[in-house]
Write a structure and sequence with these properties.
The structure is a single chain. With 770 residues, the chain is α/β, with parallel strands linked by helices. Helices cover 28% and strands 26% of the residues. It has 21 helices and 35 strands. The strands form nine sheets. A seven-stranded parallel sheet has the order 14-15-13-16-19-12-20, sandwiched between helices. It has a six-stranded parallel sheet with strand order 21-31-30-22-29-28, with helices on both faces. A five-stranded antiparallel sheet has the order 2-1-4-3-5, with no helix packed on it. Helix 1 runs antiparallel to helix 11. The longest helix has 15 residues. The mean pLDDT is 89.
Amino acid sequence: MFAKVLIDIKHEEVNRFFDYIIPSDMIDDLSRGMRVIVPFGNQTRMGYVISIIDHSDQATKEIIELLDVIPTIQEETFVLIDYLLQETNDLYSAIFETVVPSELTMDYFLEIRIVKPDIIDKDFYKVFDKNGVLRLSKSNHTYDYKIRKYVKLNALEVQPLWRQKATEKQLFAYQFNTRHHYERINQYPELDLLSDRHYLKHELNDFGLTDGKINTLVKHHVLMKEKVQINREIKHVYELKDKNVSLTKKQQLVYDNFANRKHEGKTYLLKGVTGSGKTELYLKWIFDVLNEHKQVLILVPEITLIAPMAHRLESAFGKIAIYHSQLSKGERFDQYMKVKRGEINIVLGTRSAVFLPLEQLGLIIIDEEHDTSYEQLEHVIYDAREVAKIRAEYHQCPLILGSATPSISTMYQALEGPIQLLTLDERPFDIEQPSLTFVDMREELRQKNTSMFSKLLKDSIQDRLDKQEQIMILFNRKGYAPFVMCRQCGYVPTCPTCGISLTYYQTNNRLKCHYCGYEESYSHTCTECHQQTMKPVGVGIEQVEREIEKIFPHADVIRMDANVTKTKGSHELIWHDFQNQKADILLGTQMIAKGLDFPNVTLVGVLMADLMLKTPSYRASEDAFMLLTQVAGRSGRTKHGEVIIQGYDLAHFAIKDVELGYDTFYKEALYERKISGYEPFNHVYQIRAEGLGYLHTYQVLFTLKKKLELYDGITVLGPVPAYIKKKGDKFRFVMTIKSSLDSKEPIFKNMKLFKEESVNLRFYPLPDCL
């Protein structure tokens, strides 16, 4: 018997399956989807078993080790892999790396062992441990020369080793032995407090047993010591407290409408205005699915929304699995294993949780479905909403897309196509939508107000502070200033890799690139003209924070942006503190705009609202409208609220329609899309070319454009320089494809014709990835 194996190396040359002999002792245990260790060239690598075959003319080597008891890649996951392969044309190994948690992949290293110590020179001998062993990662080439030298002399032995990146956590635990024969047991009254369960050492210490006493009791077999598995539980700052909520008539109608058709396995759009009680409906539907002994997957777009949703779910249903990128490797591994073993029936996570191995799915919920955070824009590109549709179809279970501001494409499908529309058009308990005021900051300037806050917003903030009510301020720009510039010669520091201007962060006096993470220290001295004339230009969120503290010195302010939410649990702490009114003002970027429910917030202010329309994307108007509408919905959840939107150019329909409502915006935006030929009327893709020669790179992409334009139904825009025009020593161009064809095969076929070493072509199935 033989196995076709995919090796975990991302390279075009190994983008295929390799045949291996299955050892006789593995034949009964090995199955498709399992991870194995195999010899590969002069390496030892992990691979995935794709199929088992009876005959092979290529297999010469045996599988070394079987890593799984049950397959890591389930049959459903193979369906998702095939879908991603068709959508992206990426490497097999890259797609497998996307659907399999990184904690289940391998770290590779070499174990160097001294065989003849007398030959090894003293300086090199010092780098080995007391057992004469040195472990090196395969990327560490510091000692390559000496290792090769001594291997030839047979003084060193080199063995390749591997280790899974995360494993179960095990600790020593102690259990009371009722059959002991220790005569001095009366000296340990603390033992009377123990039951027959296992105790960790710190728990025994809490009972009064010191480490010395524990060692003595182990020695005399009173306490039995053994290793036990420890689950790394995710700690929360909130207390579990469920709301007893009765559905309103409107909610009940929507609930009944869905409940009567939920076994049809369709996709539903729950369009409900902000504060209309979508979460209450989610909970009712989840309860029904759990009663059918099925599982539920709930996705939220950002880690910010994990804590409030987890609070509601755990209060109502008990233990759930939580999965997102800010967990530690060990925590993610434990959550994954709970899901894989079928121990958990509710999974809550961000985008990557869509691939978790739930075998009894009965319902998938995607909250805030309009959010572009569901799109993975790096490595293998995918849309978690589309992957969820594949999973819902596979399990024949309903998929619910929830939003107050559905994406234009989703709403179009709900009105014209396969998605079923469910509507909640009012807040419960006669709570009105907040009042809305637009402030033209050009008029403020004419009245000599040079502050970033209008007089109306200042007065309204002070009014809420006096009433001990809370305020949220949205300013969607990170850092202290967008860039710094020399006022003498005009020099602007840029990223050496991306060529984009560096953003200034006053908190740590650093300049940072938002694309690759490069950073450097900020100095007032210009590196070009050597004058002390470097100054920040423009406004960033840190500057807004200082202005608020200056105008309202007695107000407690919390800032929430990417720079202050890097540490584990920071999102939840900010949410919890503001929820419990430990601050008066929450200032943030777009991460504060959606899904959060703060009962005491009665004022929302938006600074420079028109800034959101300046991004180079055909979705800019949609993104701006949704962000403004969502943040406006944070105000007045339990009592009358107010929203003040400031800007310098408020005439655009995406801003005006925040007051007129979603339906008005949808009609205007759809007309704009139809005229331009963008989604939902055409598929929109992009291709990026990256090469060493400026002209040659452009010519390759231009020639590809001419080939693609021969197909009916395909229109190509560009090529144009990419937003990041040059990265490292490579020039970058991009072209946009509008296609009415359902298949991407013409694009992939022609991309292969132009494949060459000097120019890399990359296909992007989602627009605005670059």
